[in-house]
Amino acid sequence: MTAPLLAHATDYGRMYARSTTEQFAVPSITTVIAQQAHALDGWFSYMGASSLAADPELPAMIGSPARIRQAVNKAAKAAETYRDEAAARGDRVHTYCEQVALRALGRPHRMQECRDELASHGEQAFAARFDEWWELYRVEPIAPEITVWNQSVGYAGTLDLVARINGRICLIDYKTKGTTRDGTVKALDDKVVMQLVAGMKAEESLVDPVAGQWEPWKFGENPMLLAVAIGETEVRPQRANPDVLKHHWWKFCALRRVWEMSADVSAAGQALLPIAPPPLAAPARVSVGAGALG
Fold first, then answer.
1. What is the pTM of this model?
2. Domain holding 70: CATH number?
3. What DSSP assignment string belongs to 55-111?
4. Which of 54, 80, 249, 272 has its CA 20 to 30 A from that of 214?
5. pLDDT tens column, 118-155
6. In the chain, how many domains are there?
7. Domain hosting residue 31, numbered range
């Protein structure tokens, strides 16, 4: 996926600026959604244990505490390694999808180069399945990788694709997914609906990032919101249920407030301060009467 030109990595998550010459001002859609808690302790533990159990050098490590410690340290990073590799794969697949849309629009593209890059990683099946879906659904691209802004709530983001399918305007978000044991693409997370509805609720879209030129958002009136799971065995598009959109929008707005409060707390300063023990009390003075020994 092409990195949005106006997006910046910050201590408060990914944030967007209005132009290439301005400071970042609002959080990204995904940064806002990330305020929602995710319990991944079990997954991290499983990935670590699986990595250690699958290590081909494990039998030779028995009896060597130093080598065992090295193996444990390696296994402890297994979840992070898997996450980073999945993110890199997702970027490659998203970039290919963008190039397909650019080619269909008659604009400069790197479609073959990106397809070759997928093949070099053994990921050509993602491209093949995506091409099949693109032809089957007769996708008519309008705007790939379009950056949007909502000033009222305070956020920005980049939509994977605005397209027309069967005469209907669609806002599309791609998710690269693995494959289940039965050969189907893994299920999508419901939070993708928050991502799509936030895009739908945009107020502006980017025209020129260098000049900071924006225009009123043209595709927010009753579009179809599509989450498209791209796997090696199939591509599964799913439509966001119109009846639940308002609830996911309210939840997104609440998470935006959580992000703001968290940023305010971080900027306020150090939460805990050291404290010294109280000073030692001075010894009490004893008054000596007239009859005291002198």
1. 0.82
2. 3.90.320
3. -TTHHHHTT-HHHHHHHHHHHHTHHHHHHHHHHHHHHHHHHHHHHHHHHHTT----H
4. 249
5. 999 999 999 999 999 999 999 999 999 999 999 999 99
6. 1
7. 7-264
